[in-house]
Design brief:
212 residues, alpha+beta, Glutaredoxin, 5-stranded mixed beta sheet, 9 helices
Length: 212
């Protein structure tokens, strides 16, 4: 009994030591060779989630990610990048950026995810997306205009350029300070992604303090 307790305690201690260890480049995260310029203020550390509404892993990560984002320090800016990797992905990316431009993305995000993953809706046709948006205080005509707007098309192009620069071929990903990429594979699990991202935020903060 005592031996079992000692073994369990050792396991817990070892687990805590592993969690406290600094993330390792090339193992826990990758470095972006040629990062694009950040749009965040210079005193902010930018964190970006790269996602696709149709991705089951992004859907599974959503709750953990939202809880983590709610607790981020004041010097961290969080945003999302909808990855346009393919025709269906691009339609969902258009929906994301159009919803953002209409100011309804936060309100509909979980419902949009649920509609795809729980209710089996594809939500890739413009009429279906416009009808969905109409439940959130906009007209279907306003939704169609947003989906086909120059601004949304420009954001799709920018998202594509970032995906190429980051050399990302899948989702979800967390990008810290436009330099460090955390994937489910590098983190070992979806849940670990936010923990490693937190450690990288601390790393960026330390690097900036040393540079001053």
């Amino acid at each position: 009994m005592i031996k079992s307790f000692v073994a369990l305690l050792a396991g817990v201690t070892l687990s805590g030591a592993v969690m406290a260890a600094a993330p390792v480049e090339g193992q826990d995260y990758q470095v972006i060779d040629e990062p694009m310029a950040s749009e965040a203020p210079s005193d902010q550390i930018e964190v970006t989630e790269v996602f696709w509404y149709g991705c089951p892993h992004c859907y599974a990560l959503e709750s953990t990610l939202n809880d983590w984002v709610d607790q981020l320090p004041d010097d961290v800016t969080f945003d999302r990048l909808a990855a346009p990797l393919g025709q269906v992905w691009e339609q969902h990316a258009k929906a994301f950026y159009a919803a953002e431009s209409l100011g309804i993305e936060e309100d509909l995000r979980q419902d949009f995810f649920d509609a795809i993953h729980e209710k089996g809706q594809r939500l890739t046709e413009e009429d279906d997306i416009a009808a969905f948006f109409a439940n959130y205080g906009v007209t279907e005509d306003e939704a169609r205009k947003a989906l086909n707007s120059f601004g949304v098309k420009s954001q799709i192009q920018q998202a594509s350029a970032k995906m190429r620069a980051y050399k990302l071929m899948g989702v979800p990903d967390l990008i810290v300070d436009n330099r460090y990429v955390v994937t489910p594979d590098s983190a070992g699990s979806l849940e670990n992604m936010t923990q490693i991202a937190s450690a990288l935020i601390d790393k960026v903060r330390e690097e900036r303090d040393e540079a001053e």
